[in-house]
Protein 1
Amino acid sequence: ADIRNAQDYAALAPHFMPPAHYAYISGGSGHGQSVAANQTALAQWALYPRLLRDVSHGHTRITLAGEEHAHPLLLAPVAFHKLAHAHGEIDTARAADATDTCMIASTQSSYTLEETASAGGARRWFQLYLLPRREDTLDLLRRAEAAGYRAIVLTVDAPIQVANRRALAAQFQLPPDVAPVNLRGYDIAPRYAGNGPGDSRFFQGAMRGAPGWDDIHWVMSQTRLPVWVKGVLHPDDAAALRDAGVTGLAVSNHGGRSLDGAPSGLDVLPAIRAAVGPDYPLMYDGGVQSGSDLFKALALGANAVAVGRLQLYALSVAGALGVAHMVKLLREELEICMAMAGCATVADITGKALFKPAR
Amino acid sequence: ADIRNAQDYAALAPHFMPPAHYAYISGGSGHGQSVAANQTALAQWALYPRLLRDVSHGHTRITLAGEEHAHPLLLAPVAFHKLAHAHGEIDTARAADATDTCMIASTQSSYTLEETASAGGARRWFQLYLLPRREDTLDLLRRAEAAGYRAIVLTVDAPIQVANRRALAAQFQLPPDVAPVNLRGYDIAPRYAGNGPGDSRFFQGAMRGAPGWDDIHWVMSQTRLPVWVKGVLHPDDAAALRDAGVTGLAVSNHGGRSLDGAPSGLDVLPAIRAAVGPDYPLMYDGGVQSGSDLFKALALGANAVAVGRLQLYALSVAGALGVAHMVKLLREELEICMAMAGCATVADITGKALFKPAR
Amino acid sequence: ADIRNAQDYAALAPHFMPPAHYAYISGGSGHGQSVAANQTALAQWALYPRLLRDVSHGHTRITLAGEEHAHPLLLAPVAFHKLAHAHGEIDTARAADATDTCMIASTQSSYTLEETASAGGARRWFQLYLLPRREDTLDLLRRAEAAGYRAIVLTVDAPIQVANRRALAAQFQLPPDVAPVNLRGYDIAPRYAGNGPGDSRFFQGAMRGAPGWDDIHWVMSQTRLPVWVKGVLHPDDAAALRDAGVTGLAVSNHGGRSLDGAPSGLDVLPAIRAAVGPDYPLMYDGGVQSGSDLFKALALGANAVAVGRLQLYALSVAGALGVAHMVKLLREELEICMAMAGCATVADITGKALFKPAR
Amino acid sequence: ADIRNAQDYAALAPHFMPPAHYAYISGGSGHGQSVAANQTALAQWALYPRLLRDVSHGHTRITLAGEEHAHPLLLAPVAFHKLAHAHGEIDTARAADATDTCMIASTQSSYTLEETASAGGARRWFQLYLLPRREDTLDLLRRAEAAGYRAIVLTVDAPIQVANRRALAAQFQLPPDVAPVNLRGYDIAPRYAGNGPGDSRFFQGAMRGAPGWDDIHWVMSQTRLPVWVKGVLHPDDAAALRDAGVTGLAVSNHGGRSLDGAPSGLDVLPAIRAAVGPDYPLMYDGGVQSGSDLFKALALGANAVAVGRLQLYALSVAGALGVAHMVKLLREELEICMAMAGCATVADITGKALFKPAR
Ligand SMILES: Cc1cc2nc3c(=O)[nH]c(=O)nc-3n(C[C@H](O)[C@H](O)[C@H](O)COP(=O)(O)O)c2cc1C
Ligand SMILES: Cc1cc2nc3c(=O)[nH]c(=O)nc-3n(C[C@H](O)[C@H](O)[C@H](O)COP(=O)(O)O)c2cc1C
Ligand SMILES: Cc1cc2nc3c(=O)[nH]c(=O)nc-3n(C[C@H](O)[C@H](O)[C@H](O)COP(=O)(O)O)c2cc1C
Ligand SMILES: Cc1cc2nc3c(=O)[nH]c(=O)nc-3n(C[C@H](O)[C@H](O)[C@H](O)COP(=O)(O)O)c2cc1C
């Protein structure tokens, strides 16, 4: 099969994974409204080609919170890469290294953060989920620091696990050789169940263990690494997190896997950019499958863009090579859009580069 | 079959009822435009997740016109529960009791209001249709009072019966063991036929027997129970009813079963809220099948939300247990939405919690 | 088969006519864009039910340009009723008579205007096409006067015949027993062909024979009957025709059978009403198949509404009885909408009765 | 098969060409978003019929940048006509001649510009692509002048070739007898590859060879022929090109074959017209398949309209005769729209002739 565009990996993936794995990965929470919203939001924009501009000095380099990146594409934190390929995160890390891409390793990886770190390059960040006990969270943080991760991405948008109906229908279960190996030895049983009389298992259960502002401050006080917060969709939350001293934000609806019915991050990105000011670091993820998707998110206010599922799709098709190829294609597709839109640098990509047809 | 969401009962119901019953229940009047409008209206909204808020004291309790309810979900008045399950209203009442849910028993029930009352809990309201003769209406009202119903919901939006085309196509007929047993002994033959020369059977027939303002005043004068009016869609009608001293209103297009072509109550809810002021009790029904549907209606101005068809769907699948399970699921789905939207109480759910993607 | 709504005749008609006849009747010009626009335009509106209003004195009577009508529904001029049923216009006229409906007989009828007149009741209008020669047009007009037609409806929106692609694909041809019998003995060969050097067969052909302002004045000067003009879509044309002394206008895109790509009359009706003032007589036609369609057109500015295709559909299914039944159903459907919208008279039906959901 | 409308050639073409050729011609770049946008943009407009206007002096003649044309329809530059028919550009040129149509011969033609010129009539323009070496470009320009081409259309919107996925999927390759024969003897190997360390093959490759402002000035300085620029979509580019002294612009997204995701030229045409002023020559192309499409583009600001694919479709079906017939049909369809919209001349076609239904 011919692979011409990054998106082709999405079409091929179902042929390279057990159906239940594919259902789990591709699905979203509930009825998949927020998954669909991510695609609809991207599809409504067109790109203005611009003529005769000299972009022969063009490049995709960016500086993100002080750090240089070869291009604005990151690998979003995604759990259990082994579901897509036996080499799992090891291969993803190799591909990230080969393509100068920053990989954000998930707390819920199927190889340990140390294994992933030693397989990959220097550009690596760690996605942190708060564990029920602070001492465990701290240990995880210290291990990430020790393994050379350069930034912490604290994901706070999933205090409650909402079922993925497609995964359930396909009777998805973690296979025996796939587990959240980073968490071995920690006490990860939820501390609150909310099963007292009159209790809600959400309000008095899960939400009692959910991240709060004190956790944000605590994490920042425990590390010198830059701390990003992932999962922001409301401009007021964005402004408050910026005010709290967080390094940057990932505007994301968790790939439509958290609250079903949440808007696409793309639709709220301009309002969030307006709320945090022009210079505050924002990352976008959700539904990105092409260079023009990347371009649109950058134009609407993101400084960088992460892909989630597409990593696993490419990994399933061809392991490290697949991921590296997918990244290369996406980057080239972005370069084509930039060149044709007359944007020599990522900073040149602004809202003026987009056109919204009135339908 | 796995039931994960309240909505799953809607998908299963056709397998648990005779096709003609299902057609009658699921269908709407005419060509079903207003049934469809209810779903379209709900689907156009997204919910803003909010981060890091402490909702560990959260709960779903509300006070509705002075009465405490464990949650803002009611069972809408629905005729002939026996069509879905032999235990009919008896089982629904049991489920309502078990889940602290207020059941609004229909005038057109297939078990008597007294039977339903003795099967259920304390939280019960009675939906009243005006009968052709006032003495019969009064008798019905007195029986409802005697049976401990705590509020009257006077339905006024169906002065003319508009055919349900799907039911007709399926040749639906009431089976011999299903009848409007509450009405036994009353004279329910329409008093006006409109068949004089030049007469319209609607203007000079049905509409002559239709509820008028005098009936509203008369009902209120005959009972100490709170009187709600059900079936309001126009802000001016809402304001006039509030001015007339009615306790509260059910904003509803009768599940798309009255005037085909009527808007969804959801689309007019904000204007009605604006017309009646912030504190006047409003209930919403129409198309609700999930916790996020509930959340949306609450955010757009309702104080409580009722489900119609979903009761019968759950009843058909598993009797009392099904209804109780459906209510539990809906409530949990609402709690998840509230928790993730950072709303600790129903009062926290406002229009600011919603996002409308510009498409 | 059960017929519950006027619209059911549309569904049944294909089973009661040769496919080519059905293609000719149901189709529109070109690719059918304007046919589709008529339905889309109607579908975008919802109707506000209103509560508790006394409409027991309600009726559908209207006065149209000084003439009383039992209801605001007319039978639009439609060519060749024989294509639908051997009794053709004779049966339509009988049905119109039986239902107190004004039939607008087409110039291109398959029974003569005299035959149609003697079969029908007193309420009949004549649709006039200008013939190539004035003396023939005048003869036709005199015959219509003599046969007791009470108004002239001058159709001016079809100066060029645009092919009906569906009819062509079905190889439609007029059968031998169907012909424009009114025109026998007239010279109906087009007077202009536009085939000189550099000539366009449209500009220098058909359009040279097209109706002009002088024709409007000439027709009005030749008859004492009220003269309506049919086929208006632009507000400026409407205002000019009113200023010219025309009795009233039919806002119509000719059922999507003239310029393909013309807007639906419904979409332009409010602007035309605004242009001609509140009291000037306007008729609407295009896509009407139900009482709520009628209601919508009345609410948006029409004083009366005509149906085209539905006549032939009903005629094909059951002759005079079918047409009479269709009219009765439509009228009843209108009465239901009026009663439920709290409109006792047609004059009560205003734009305030409609709601347009923002999608 | 019956051919009634120009558009019918589009439906027939797949039966007259190898599938791979059809895929290459009909497809667009990437996922075909811009191809689709061209049709959506046209479909959203309706045309106002106008009544009773005298258009018997009507005609389609226009003056375009000082040159008289019998009608506002041009044949857009399209590569390799031999893919559609063995006679290729020769037959197209004959058809153009027979129908008084201006053919814009492509640099990438499959017969030489000299062969095409001698087959056709006097009204011919030449579409120029800049070649890697200026001396070759100049030679091509001189040949076009010598062969009697009357204007140069410099295409600048395709600095990067974006793959046509449908052509790739169909494994399209140029057959041995089809080649860019105009370029024989020139050095057409790209001068820049962008394969130094850290180089992008787009920024430091293709874009280094892309047309710049200096090229525009250089071409204008090398010829006395009027110079049009093709491929403009942004109003600022349009204004700058006008200021640079370019004769006129082709507003075009290259038939959706360049940047996938570019807007339709139709959607940006009004803004471009506003930017360049009322009198500056603008051509439109993209998606045009009917007279009403032509009319819409003229109404939205174009002075002339070109068709691309439809030429090849007609050519494939019936060679020169097909193209001539297609042009005749399109012109007649335009005349019908003009006549019915009351526009006697192309100048009468303005934005006021269009209606945009609010959906
Ligand atoms: C299978 C899967 C697992 C994920 N696991 C995590 C995770 O462990 N931590 C996290 O912050 N986000 C996780 N995400 C969300 C991604 O980081 C990202 O927000 C999302 O995938 C972006 O949408 P996309 O997949 O459409 O590109 C996961 C997403 C998927 C699809
Ligand atoms: C089968 C059926 C019977 C109903 N009977 C009554 C009734 O007797 N009285 C009443 O006020 N509403 C009745 N309704 C309307 C409901 O109270 C409610 O307005 C509607 O069902 C809400 O829409 P939903 O079914 O989409 O939730 C009925 C609805 C259904 C589906
Ligand atoms: C088969 C057919 C024949 C028609 N013939 C005429 C005609 O002779 N004169 C005329 O003014 N309109 C004619 N019309 C147009 C109708 O008067 C009317 O404008 C149109 O049918 C209304 O749209 P509807 O068919 O969707 O109701 C014809 C329409 C149809 C469908
Ligand atoms: C097969 C094909 C080849 C084309 N080749 C050229 C070309 O050589 N030069 C050019 O300027 N445009 C070229 N175009 C673009 C056309 O000039 C024109 O912009 C486009 O086809 C208009 O869209 P339409 O095909 O929908 O009418 C080509 C288009 C097609 C379909």
Protein 2
Amino acid sequence: MSDPQALLARLTHLLGSERVLTAESETQAYLTDWRGRYRGSALAVVRPGSVEEVSAVVQACAAAGVPIVPQGGNTGLCGGATPLADGRSILVSLSRLNRIRATDADNNTLVAEAGCTLAAVQQAAEGIGRLFPLSLAAEGSCEIGGNLSTNAGGVHVLRYGNMRELTLGLEVVLPDGRVWDGLRGLRKDNTGYDLKQLFIGAEGTLGIITAAVLKLYPQPRSRSVAWLAVRDPQAAVELLGRLRACAGERLSAFELVGRSALELVLQHIPNARLPLPAAPEWSVLVELSDPHADAGLDSLLTSFLESALESGLLLDATLAGSLAQRAELWALRENISEAQKIEGFSIKHDISVPVSRIPGFLAEAGRALRAAWPGVRIVAFGHLGDGNLHYNLSRPAAEDNDAFIARTSEVNRIVHDLVDAAGGSISAEHGIGQLKRGELQRYKSGVELDLMRSIKAAVDPRGLMNPGKIL
Amino acid sequence: MSDPQALLARLTHLLGSERVLTAESETQAYLTDWRGRYRGSALAVVRPGSVEEVSAVVQACAAAGVPIVPQGGNTGLCGGATPLADGRSILVSLSRLNRIRATDADNNTLVAEAGCTLAAVQQAAEGIGRLFPLSLAAEGSCEIGGNLSTNAGGVHVLRYGNMRELTLGLEVVLPDGRVWDGLRGLRKDNTGYDLKQLFIGAEGTLGIITAAVLKLYPQPRSRSVAWLAVRDPQAAVELLGRLRACAGERLSAFELVGRSALELVLQHIPNARLPLPAAPEWSVLVELSDPHADAGLDSLLTSFLESALESGLLLDATLAGSLAQRAELWALRENISEAQKIEGFSIKHDISVPVSRIPGFLAEAGRALRAAWPGVRIVAFGHLGDGNLHYNLSRPAAEDNDAFIARTSEVNRIVHDLVDAAGGSISAEHGIGQLKRGELQRYKSGVELDLMRSIKAAVDPRGLMNPGKIL
């Protein structure tokens, strides 16, 4: 590596001194992940404002042999955007690339730069009478570049897909600083390898995404939301199949909530209210939506629930009768993470298995964990429609919990081994980052790791892009 | 390369002599594409029956340094599955890998081997009360491996996506014979690079797909089909936007048909009948479908069409009143290719542009072609909902047409330059194969071609997989 001071001078020449941050007071917020689990170090934090500037920064870093860590809204959960502690890299913040470059209602697309917040993209879509359906808790501060780099999911994946399915084209600054303009707004394009797929979900290890063509949908104009008490997870899976068979794509959320998760919300979140006479062992939040203003969703859902009650799969249900009730039901689901944070630390897993294997996984994992730690508290909830569960564990008593947390890797082993045996994923929607690199090595086949390393070596032969992440 | 006879002996040892074809009478059907435009040659055609046999064949070929050409149902349109004429390669037919390995109604997936016909996959889905939505003219003989390798499209892409979007996992034999087992049936899995995306649409140049996990949907139980006469393509685009805004994902086809296309069908196809009093300059075939048996689609479509008539976008429309009428309307659209074949040779283009740019493209291309060849016949039709047109050109008189056909590259230049200027694709759904290699070099940027070559070199460093295709 050449002289770091020379690189900093070069970057200052390119961007101006106010865009090259080195003082700890200025860099601190970029060098720590928002949960405070990772603390990194960097030669500088730079804030380019255009794809040309990003390209120039990457060229300068490449010439100096200095690693680059791209960062968006810094809301990731796996330390993927936090540099390593060695202080050798340049952190490139994309937040100033925050223009909506174009909207096209007839093509149902918009072009957003990487630093647009998810909320800004949702608003731009709304501005032309369309929906951008990605929705997740951090949407006010997470940025599209990060959503792309982690292939973000959320509550509406069962209807609209992940970020990958919502993306038609990309613009990417490659590890040598060249710009790949793949900003095509096409639904059908079979002209060779689909390169955008490489960069989506690559967590910045293959290049820096600077802009994307995103898919839009009609805005929903009617909605119906219900809270269901179900016999058990198997009943939830059966209800999901039946509801899809009559509601089709109108089914826009199907969220499973275990009793401990619901109880934490009722305990810690002001104004949270039990929607049924007693807290069910397993609940499901269902949402139907339709672009037609007069789609008859309430009556469709009511008649479905009536027949499900008769069949015994469903124990009880309440349909939201007003906008306020709908918001109340959704708040029960959306506040689970917050309630858990208030309750204290827990060992979290973001896993997926085939939908058909959710009931078996829950039964086996529960048995294994209770055998190892009698009285363990299992907080399970998530996107049943996608086979994706947040499966979090703690001890009810604080004094026991510290000892339990110290055994995280034993807990992970039990949970992840069962996920693996069920053909599942140890990271359904949060990615790998620094957090799960070791687990990735354990659960991916040698062939798959080899293929991933070949791709990395082909696109980033000098290994300068976001080192120490994923691989 | 080592002795070809030694390789043939090795392959015969692995598969048995009846699975290693060398007699011209036996190999001929594999060595010519079905339209008879490409004629290749090969050391042998081999017919393995399992992934283990495919792996052994590839290992043997790799050891001998002999190129491999994978082939499915041999229904491709670009010569992608026809070997080069040099006779150096082994053609690997996947047709004997034709098992449905598993079905999972609760997970909405099935696992099909590469040699299953598309029709067999559709039937397997139906057998568990589900829909596999990919549908195209060759479905009785095309095979899933080919559909995957060309990222097949068809008439329902606007609702369900291309083959890529219908695929959750793959099993692939790599160029060195190792098997990558990526047969995961997960909607959410963010554990590193999404390797399956590399092989989908790669036309066999990176490995041999041997099996896939495919996504299933609820079966439609109601349908409504109408034939529309629209003012012009711009009116069709506006109607598409309005119809989506009220019908949402129920809109399962939106096909534009120009007058010459309709007239060819009326002229050449027995029992084809004009659905409206006069042949419109531009028609649209619309289909709505819904899993609910009692979805009120006819009344939704009728009231939509009434208001569109009032606004002047729509000139006339007829709604199919019976199953037979629905089939008649669909036959008008589906028989266009057949009618063209009967009429004679034409210069075909399978192109896409953003939906919003379809009207402008049609106007400009029409002007440019008519200026160069007064009286040129333009047969334009296709999947307007995806921005994908089949744009085919001929001279009405046979004697003029031969001279016109001889100028194919001039015609391509006019059409493809306008497609490129509109941000479009020169191959929307048929792929590149041998047919469009030259055009790909012309229209892809140097950066994109470099990236594609790096990927090819990383995954297939010896260049043994399907040489002379795409790159």
